[in-house]
Amino acid sequence: MVFGGRLICEFLQNSSFWSSFLRVSLYARSAYMRVYTGLLIAGTEEQKKKYLPKLASGEHIAAFCLTEPGSGSDAASIQTRGTLSEDGKHYLLNGSKIWISNGGIADIFTVFARTEVVDKDGVFKDKITAFIVERAFGGITNGKAEDKLGIRGSNTCEVHFENTKIPIDNVIGEVGGGFKVAMNILNSGRFSMGSASAGMLKKLIEMTAEYACTRKQFNKKLSEFGLIQEKFALMARQAYVMESMAYLTAGMMDRPGIPDCSVEAAIVKVFSSEGSWVCVSEALQILGGLGYIKDYPYERYLRDSRILMIFEGTNEVLRMYIALTGIQYAGKILTERIKEFKKRNIKVMWNLIIDRMFGSKPPSIGVIGQGGVVHPSLKESVEKLEQNVFEFGNTVENLLMRFGKTIVDEQMILKKVANIVINLYAMTAVISRATRSMCIGLKNHDHEVLLANIFCIEACFENNYTMVSLQKDSPENLDENIKKVANQVLEKRSYICSHPLNRTF
């Protein structure tokens, strides 16, 4: 790929966007990269030669058209339609797309639409196809630019297609293969959020630290107060974890072929977007009233970072994807074990009994000690990771036995499963990175070890609590009570508690 994973990480972290607040927002750039990535992944050589040079030079602006008024997170439900002409030489595109970045200024659009496809059995089916659409094809109009809370530098609007004539040569990939193309493109955008968020936090730490080290209250600098120091430690830790996860995932994506890193990309997106929101909020707390004033740049960070939890797939949808993908794999293994158990396979039955009786301690995976690959300074973190992984395996197995296939409907449980997986991946990333830094003698490697150990200890504690709450009849599991409260509120569509002064006797 022209733009490898690690190259994208470097670009997003070192981009002058964060230091000079360029008018072109990160999201506008993201839309640009989506079109570019789609052509790189699935485009023909002719398509690449025709479109990539002008996109790369900036001569042409690009837009990515997936979301519709009736289909947001459910991308498979889009209604825009591409109809093949009678002569079979072009498609007529009709439909509308919303929330399109660069929609009012783009020259080139990647558009996803339903097309009629004949399957192997000769049955006609509707499947999604990806098209390269030029504004010059005609039949393209757009609404006014949306007035948004954040990322105000990006042009976001509705785009309408009315009998837009598209040559069949402008299909990206296979006819009917557009959904896969869309998911591959979104994966690229999701993983890059880690490096983009880390870059943002690095700049914000610099700006906020300068203020904290010069501002005095009660005859002391802000930087001398414990609660302020805690906020800086949080920002540094989160930035380190985001960056570590982003580069670990980028390394996987840069392997030969097109490896499937969709789960890892979703993990990076969820962790980084939520971590950014928390850290930016804490930074504004350090700045006090200064952070709330539009004359200063800080409040823009808060407004711009809020979109991170929404675009590229909402965090709620991605959590379901993370959890169910893993559970699907675990379910296959458990199903095979149950089949063997029913056949009275003595070995399987005996191993299961042994695991239940003596499986309280996780087996060491041999990454610490002689011949190990993790630095001894991270021994406690590795042990906590091993313990968490072992207990998590048992937890997932118990959940599958308890719920079976109906677990797909247990969203609150799946959210907890996803949160554990996210923490496990983050722990793996920081342990790996801190070990490398120690072994090759990078500057401030002891600082990295501190960050890694703090994060792993906190993540392990969080995982342990979450796994306890996933046990049947656990007093920590409040899911049923939460559902009752939600249903009572939604039934009345309001806050239903009586005013405390309705009665005064």
From TrEMBL:
<dbReference type="Pfam" id="PF02770">
    <property type="entry name" value="Acyl-CoA_dh_M"/>
</dbReference>
<dbReference type="GO" id="GO:0032981">
    <property type="term" value="P:mitochondrial respiratory chain complex I assembly"/>
</dbReference>
<keyword id="KW-0285">Flavoprotein</keyword>
<dbReference type="InterPro" id="IPR009100">
    <property type="entry name" value="AcylCoA_DH/oxidase_NM_dom_sf"/>
</dbReference>
<dbReference type="GO" id="GO:0001676">
    <property type="term" value="P:long-chain fatty acid metabolic process"/>
</dbReference>
<dbReference type="InterPro" id="IPR049448">
    <property type="entry name" value="ACAD9/ACADV-like_C"/>
</dbReference>
<dbReference type="Pfam" id="PF21343">
    <property type="entry name" value="ACAD9-ACADV_C"/>
</dbReference>
<feature type="domain" description="ACAD9/ACADV-like C-terminal">
    <location>
        <begin position="376"/>
        <end position="494"/>
    </location>
</feature>
<dbReference type="InterPro" id="IPR036250">
    <property type="entry name" value="AcylCo_DH-like_C"/>
</dbReference>
<feature type="domain" description="Acyl-CoA oxidase/dehydrogenase middle">
    <location>
        <begin position="63"/>
        <end position="163"/>
    </location>
</feature>
<keyword id="KW-0560">Oxidoreductase</keyword>
<comment type="similarity">
    <text>Belongs to the acyl-CoA dehydrogenase family.</text>
</comment>
<dbReference type="GO" id="GO:0005634">
    <property type="term" value="C:nucleus"/>
</dbReference>
<dbReference type="GO" id="GO:0050660">
    <property type="term" value="F:flavin adenine dinucleotide binding"/>
</dbReference>
<dbReference type="GO" id="GO:0070991">
    <property type="term" value="F:medium-chain fatty acyl-CoA dehydrogenase activity"/>
</dbReference>
<keyword id="KW-0809">Transit peptide</keyword>
<keyword id="KW-0496">Mitochondrion</keyword>
<dbReference type="GO" id="GO:0004466">
    <property type="term" value="F:long-chain fatty acyl-CoA dehydrogenase activity"/>
</dbReference>
<keyword id="KW-0999">Mitochondrion inner membrane</keyword>
<dbReference type="GO" id="GO:0051791">
    <property type="term" value="P:medium-chain fatty acid metabolic process"/>
</dbReference>
<dbReference type="InterPro" id="IPR009075">
    <property type="entry name" value="AcylCo_DH/oxidase_C"/>
</dbReference>
<keyword id="KW-0597">Phosphoprotein</keyword>
<feature type="domain" description="Acyl-CoA dehydrogenase/oxidase C-terminal">
    <location>
        <begin position="176"/>
        <end position="323"/>
    </location>
</feature>
<protein>
    <submittedName>
        <fullName>Acyl-CoA dehydrogenase family member 9</fullName>
    </submittedName>
</protein>
<dbReference type="InterPro" id="IPR006091">
    <property type="entry name" value="Acyl-CoA_Oxase/DH_mid-dom"/>
</dbReference>
<dbReference type="InterPro" id="IPR006089">
    <property type="entry name" value="Acyl-CoA_DH_CS"/>
</dbReference>
<keyword id="KW-0472">Membrane</keyword>
<dbReference type="GO" id="GO:0005743">
    <property type="term" value="C:mitochondrial inner membrane"/>
</dbReference>
<dbReference type="InterPro" id="IPR046373">
    <property type="entry name" value="Acyl-CoA_Oxase/DH_mid-dom_sf"/>
</dbReference>
<dbReference type="GO" id="GO:0030425">
    <property type="term" value="C:dendrite"/>
</dbReference>
<dbReference type="Pfam" id="PF00441">
    <property type="entry name" value="Acyl-CoA_dh_1"/>
</dbReference>
<keyword id="KW-0274">FAD</keyword>
<dbReference type="InterPro" id="IPR037069">
    <property type="entry name" value="AcylCoA_DH/ox_N_sf"/>
</dbReference>
